[in-house]
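Q: Could you predict the 3D structure of Decaprenylphospho-beta-D-erythro-pentofuranosid-2 -ulose 2-reductase?
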Amino acid sequence: MKDAFGTPQSLLVLGGTSEIALATARRLVARRTRTVWLAGRPSPALDAAASELRELGADVHTLAFDALDAESHEPALARVFAQGDIDMVLLAFGILGDQVRDEGSPLAAVRVAQTNYTGAVSASLICAKALQTQGHGSLVVLSSVAAERARRANFIYGSSKAGLDAFTQGLGDALHGSGVHVMLIRPGYVRTKMTTGIPEAPLATTPEAVAEAIETGLRRHSEVVWVPGSLRVVMSALRHVPRPIFRRLPV
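A: Sure. Here are the predicted structure tokens for Decaprenylphospho-beta-D-erythro-pentofuranosid-2 -ulose 2-reductase:
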């Protein structure tokens, strides 16, 4: 259960090598989170992440998880919830893809869509059901500001996040009053390995800043969190720019 400060005592991360997820886990472990499950493809990076959190005092377990293998999701995640209640699930897996390459390679574009949307739908529904069964918990889903409006520069990635964004909002409505809190995170450009080589956008942020916003959102029981918060105003304006004009904007 969460403690008096709203900090989860147990955490399941889907996408266990995500820099945002690990920054969040470090922050929560520094508070009162004691049990952490890191789910992801087995790799030295996953093992290193687990070791780092153990050094901070957490009881850390790793779980083989592949976003693209939806048939394996239910048995894999069932093993986690069978070990005890999970106070928070952080869905943090996803790939950016390469827009130029993926436009010419439908299979590559489908991989982006299946990872960011289909895989996330499967994992979210399974975790939501488990949280509902135990009667409490938070499901935190990393979306993106790219979900707000398709841009020429990354519409394949953006469309996959738009689907996830809409799905998460609907799931939150479906679970309202069940004891399960669903929170959607919409960060802008985050300085991570995934964005290396991509020109930095205005209002760029860091994994640590996103982690802080997630913790604040948990405490406030927020449903949607923008990182940084000023992006909410910016995107509200961009949503209403006429399409012929939007096409010519350097975004």
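Q: Anything worth pointing out?
A: The chain has a mean pLDDT of 93.
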